[in-house]
Structures are given as C-alpha cells and as structure tokens.
Amino acid sequence: MMDYTPDIIQVVPHEDYTVTVYFCDGKIVTYDVGPKLNDGVFQRLKDLSFFINNCKIMNDTLAWDLTGKNDPAECIDIDPDYLYSLEDVEDPIAV
C-alpha cells in the first residue's frame, strides 16, 4: 500500500459530467459526477456551464470553486485517495 497519494496535475471536465484526472505518476482516472447530481451540494453541478467552468484543482484535489474566489473553504472537493483508487483509463486526449 502506498504511504502517499501522487499529486493531481490536471483535471479536464467533459460534457457528460465526467472529469479526467491526471496524476504526477502517470495514472489517469475518470471521475463520474452524474450519479451524485441529485445529492445535496452536488446539485450545484447540474448546470453544465458551472460544472465545466468551475472545475479545477483546489485543496490538492479535484474540486469545483463555488464562489469564483478560489476560497479553499468554499468548494466541492473529492478525496484524492478515492480518486487514486479508481481504475486506470487510457488518456482520452491521446487516443
């Protein structure tokens, strides 16, 4: 088991409510927000424009900036250990 989770270096949101997440060690995963869009704070992400335009790296992980002020306390962020545990995918940009 790893003692650390490699850094996330890039996140790329897609119109199907998935995000490709790139780690510094070369691992690539896809996070699917779709199943959560009706749950609590995730409802904010139903607006596709908001989902895409506010997706970024905050708190060293995949996040959505809720205020547009890059306030790390005002975001939806996903546990980086969970993201790293997702199955590897091929780079959709390189395919």
Describe this structure in words.
The chain is an alpha+beta fold and 95 residues long. It has a single domain, classed as NE0471 N-terminal domain-like (2-Layer Sandwich). The chain contains two helices and six strands; from the N terminus they run E-E-E-H-E-E-E-H. It has helices at residues 48-53, 80-85; strands at residues 8-13, 18-23, 28-32, 55-58, 61-65, 75-77. Strands 1-2-3 form a three-stranded antiparallel beta sheet. It has a three-stranded antiparallel beta sheet with strand order 4-5-6.
Give the oligomeric state of the chains in this entry, treating copies of one chain as homo and distinct chains as hetero.
Answer: single chain
The CATH architecture can be named as 2-Layer Sandwich
Shape: globular
Strand order across the biggest sheet?
Answer: 1-2-3
Mean pLDDT: 94
State the CATH topology. Answer: NE0471 N-terminal domain-like
Return the structural class.
alpha+beta
Q: Please compute the radius of gyration using only Cα atoms.
A: 13 Å
